[in-house]
Amino acid sequence: MLIFGSFVFAQESFITSIEYGKMLYENPRGIGCVECHGQAGEGKRITEYYHKKKLITLQGPAINHLTFEAFAKALGENKKVMPKYYLTKSEIQAIFEYIESKNSTK
At what angle do helices 68-76 and 89-104 cross, to 10 degrees? Predict the structure, then answer.
């Protein structure tokens, strides 16, 4: 029984929620959040192109200022450009914690 208890504890502490959030942020289901939202959720220019002689900039919005509720809601909405990732609540929480940790160290 003592060995089993040690094994369970070891598994729970193998990776932190923030480390898991980092893994998901960088590559959740193919294209990582980092590609459009930047290293710390600050937003990032994705591309620029001309349409009818007008320069169009496609920008990933900043997500580092959102509350958890707004963050989770945005992930559940259909967007024209952003893929739908079908993340679980715990995955969303881990990503949110990772973004918060990146912005608290600045």
Answer: 130
